[in-house]
Amino acid sequence: MRNLLPHAGRSPAARSSRRRQKFALTLLTIAGIVFRSEIAILLASQTLYLYFRSYIRLPILSIIPAGLLGAFIGLALTVPIDSFFWQRWPLWPELTGFIYNIVEKQSSNWGTSPWHFYFTSALPRLLFNPFVYQICLPLALSVPILRRQALDILLPNILFLAVYSFQPHKEWRFIVYTIPPCLAVASAGASWIWTRRAKSFVYRVLSLTLIASTLASFVASMGMLTVSRLNYPGAEALNRLHALADNDTGIVKVHMDTLACMTGVTRFMERAPPALSDAQGAFWVYDKTEEEEKLLDPLFWEGFDYALAERPERVIGSWHVLSIVEGYAGIAIMRPEEGWEQAVEDVRTLQRLGLDSAWGEDALETARKWVSEISLGRLVSVVRKFGTKGWWVRMKMEPRIRILKRGRMLGSVEESESAPVEE
């Protein structure tokens, strides 16, 4: 982003600025070819801005070589490497994705959003702190000395958002590239407020609000992080399956449905083939088939030992539920009477632990006892009893993915979690 900032005129700084702009266009071209095809729209908006902005006027003879160089490097990297790993030649993954999502218009299968979604929902949520987009950004655009550079940073990114908004399927991750530029402009507005905090009462109040909103955003982000980690039952299910089937040998075949693959299952979690010296190791084979015709074929399911399924009734054959993985289902308010007896008992346990502690005689053993006895649940119980009078906020969980095993139950699985699933 810094390389795209222009310097007007024909000074050495301006010439250096043009070299950096060409370098930035080359890097954006490489990123669009190798990583994400939507970066091509951002590249186009940045290029048009650099070409048509009157005091910049990056020559077309500078733009074309930068693009060609980036295209050559990007294709030289992605085609051989991805073709090798996917065993298809030639393969350019981002072009394949572009054809599927844009040309064939298949991305709408994953849901659609209104045109204004990025501006009215995604961008404010990504910026998160309301002070950023309600005060800092408008201030940076309104102060004359800051306005030109603020526009040079923001306008190409706004153009990118406007063009990409015509794509019906929208997700925040498609526009994450616009967040650093927006925050850079907002930081200029924040700096303007902070450096003038001693000059007037208004700037002093805004400075205090800036600090408070930053701290509040940090606390809220930590809370959202706690919630978001519960949104990946697929990853939890695969890890749990590996633990349940740790003693299996031979070839172990697992089918993972769409929900599991969308909620944390990645290639990095798959178990590697056993070493040649390990005769007892299992060779895990993972399947992510989505074609409805195959999923309705009983012969297809006969080839699997395990399945991770959101809807076990769609898994054809005789299966047993080894375990159920829960996922986040919202926030609930706990009234004082809910779980109050357990909270009181937790507090009494900690009180007894305090009375039995002997820090002077055997401090190390006492510390170990405290670590083993204290849990987050017991600390919450203390807060509920002495701080909130029994009221609390808890996260609701609901069953999301079932871990299924073909045939008879594993002996190590509890009866309470095992239930047959018939065709």
User: Which structural class should the secondary elements be placed in?
Assistant: alpha/beta
Mean pLDDT: 84
- Radius of gyration from the CA trace? 29 Å
**What kind of sheet is the major sheet?**
6 strands, mixed
| Structure annotation, total helices | 16
**Which percent bin holds the helix content?**
40-55%
Would you identify the regions where 5 or more consecutive residues have pLDDT less than 50? 409-420
Number of domains: 3
Give me the count of strands: 6
SSE ordering: HHHHHHHHHHEHEHHEEHHHEE
Shape: flat
Compute the separation of the termini in Å: 57 Å
Strand content: 5-15%
Strand ordering within the main sheet: 2-1-3-5-4-6
Please give a structural write-up.
It is a multi-pass membrane protein. The protein has a six-stranded mixed sheet. The radius of gyration is 29 Å and the shape is flat. It contains 16 helices and six strands. Mean pLDDT is 84; it is low at 409-420. β1 (250-256), α11 and β2 (282-287) form a beta-alpha-beta unit. α2 crosses α7 (144-164) and α14 (340-356) packs across α16 (376-386). The protein has three domains: 2-190, no CATH class; 233-329 and 398-421, D-Maltodextrin-Binding Protein, domain 2; 336-390, no CATH class. It has 423 residues and is an alpha/beta fold.
